[in-house]
Amino acid sequence: MEGFWDGCVSGWFLTHYAGGRIIGQESEDRGQKTDFGADKMTNSEKSWEKRLSGQRDELMVDFVQSLSCDKRLYKYDIAGSIAHAQMLADQKLITKAELKQIKDGLLEIEQEITEGRFKFDKSLEDIHMAVESALIKKIGEAGKKLHTGRSRNDQVSTDLRLWMRDEIEILQAKITQLQKAFVKSGSRYTEAVMPGYTHLQRAQPVVVASYLLQFVERFERDFIRLGNCRRLGNISPLGSGALAGSTLPLDRKNTASQLGFSDISYNSMDAVSDRDFCAEFIFDCALIAAHLSQLAEDWIIYSSSEFGLVLLDDSFCTSSSMMPQKRNPDVLELIRAKAGAVYGSLIAILTILKAQPTGYNRDLQEDKIHIFAAGDTVESSLDMACAVVSHTKFNTERISAGLEEGFMDATALAEYLAGKGMAFREAHGIVGSLVAHCEKSNKKLSELGPDEFKKYSSLVSEDVYESLGAARIVGKYITEGAAGPKQAKEQIAYWQRQLAQR
Length: 502
Ligand code: ARG
Known about the structure:
The chain has 20 helices and six strands. The protein is mainly α. β3, α10 and β4 form a beta-alpha-beta unit. Strands 1-2 form a two-stranded antiparallel ribbon. The site of arginine has 10 residues, from α8.
């Protein structure tokens, strides 16, 4: 943000008060009275704060402003204003000529901001006042009519909803890219077997593709959640005014349809203070961050020498300033840590909302910090994760070399006995004893002879060896959605079809 205000002091503020003198023309343009002392900055210089008197306090200006944060809403603010002005003209509340002036003026302002030619002045508080003041300065009287029947309270909520619709689309596109990266990587590993863990202890064998595809499912739910958030938030609050609506014949459905909202809000008091969509959006971001963090945690562990399951690409590793051999997974560690900041935003928005008395309160201005931060953080983490996933390889040789450690075929053996008619609890107990026996004699289950098995159960016959050996078992998984090669291939085909449509 450093540098953002550079030029602000020399902007509107100094133009008007240069050398302690009010520059008449510009002051007229803004419709301001020149009835305050040249060296005395009063609150009444703000067109919307005529009621207030006294000296403006710079500390106060800094504290209440949200422009440094909400200036990024300018396109949405201008789109909302154009729709509002169009509606005012349709309702004959302003003339066609005034509408044209307003539209042209707003589009010019938009271009100035886009091209970095616009001077932001923090004393104008927020993007709404910055744009409106610039418009009045540019076109005079007609500009003063723009805010007819509108309050910043319904305006800001409109802007946020418009921003969020776009932000959700960006996040969904990034999720899709990440899902595609998982599917592509998975398609290389439909036969490669790796240990599946529970409690981070070897549990049952799985194919690497299934391991990767679990993330596609997880991020699919995030994709859907964001879509739900968009649907619920895509409601126009415009026309709710400060909190009670308006005595003017505003056509709310007109502005709603111009702005692509699916409906209007039906209670003005709720509309101006509703930030459910912000909380929901941040929650969705928090869960995406959690999923990314889980992935990061896995691969931080899996890439260690102790595990050695994955090979992170050098381009996503860093070294140590002291230990020359180091290859550190810093990118993943940062993804893992950034989830904390998103959770912070979630707690912040929920806390901001919990004590809101009915109606708009300035507390709500703080919503933006958190929705922007959550969106930005998750955007960059999704990009980074996509790059990492696309370049990470599984160390299949090393994995298969150590695959038979850890008795990952024990469950399949118990199911073999269950399949022969033994009660599963009993089979579970017998296999437990067999594992203990193997540990003592330093053998794998597959290395036991038929006679050794027979000592534990007469149900064991020669075919038992088909159910032994981690590498072999994955091919025996027959349930839908299981972590075997057959299911992985089906899932890959499904996701390839599904994601190609996005
Ligand atoms: N900057 C304010 C916000 O972000 C705009 C609304 C101000 N409304 C008011 N009544 N002071 O919430």
